[in-house]
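writing this on my phone so excuse typos. first protein, seq and then structure
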Amino acid sequence: MKLEGQGPGLFNAGGGTIELLEDAVVIQKKNTDMSGTGFLDMAINLATSTKGGYTAAYESIHSVNISEGGFMSPPFIQILTAGEKSISSSEDAAKTPSCLLFKKAVLGQFRALKAEIEGRMADAKRKPAPPAAPPSSLADELTKLAALLTAGHLTQAEFDQQKAQLLSRA
C-alpha cells in the first residue's frame, strides 16, 4: 500500500509518499531545502526531488498519530518509534522525517492506512512460540553418550555414570 501526501501550497512542501512494505513503513519526503537557490531552482527542487527516506520496522513502532489539521494547517501522519517526540504542529511535521503532510480530502485514506499500520504492528509484536524440541528417546540419548565415549570426550567411568542416570529415569 502506498499513498501520496501533499503539503500545503504550490510546491507541496512537507509532502511525499508513505509506503507499507512487508516488514516496515517508509516515508519518502519531498526535499524542502531551499538554501542558496533562486526562486526557479526552489520550485524545481520542491516539485521533483526527494529527501532520504525514513524507515521504521513494524515491531519498533510505538504509535501512529494523525493530526487532522486546522483552518490554516494541513493534516499529517506521524510514525513514532523509541526516543521520538510527538509533533503537534504541521510546521514541525514538515521538518520531521517521521511525519508526512497530506490534503484534508484524503484524510479517510490516511485513517485506513493508520489502521493497517497498527494491525501490522500488532502482528509483528506477536512472535510465534518457538517449536518445542522433539523429545529424545532413551535410545537416542544412549547413542549420543556412546559417541562421546568413542570420541574420547568421556571416560568409561563417566559414560557408565551417565548411562546409569539415564536408565534410572526411564
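second protein below, same order as before
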Amino acid sequence: MGLVQTLLFELLGPSFDPRVGLLLAPLPVVLYFLGFVLAFYLYSETDIADGRGGETTA
C-alpha cells in the first residue's frame, strides 16, 4: 500500500495544491475499510454463509 501512496504523491503532488495531500493521506485506511465491507457483503450474499460450499440444487 505504501508503494501506491508514494506513486500517487509523486504523480499528483506537483500538479495540485498541497491540501490535496490531506485528501490522499487517509486513502489506505479507506481502501482497507472498503475491503472489509466487500468481504462481508460477498460472505453474506453467497452460498458460503449457508455452508453449502458452492454446489447448486437443480
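Residues 2-45 form one domain. thats all i got for now
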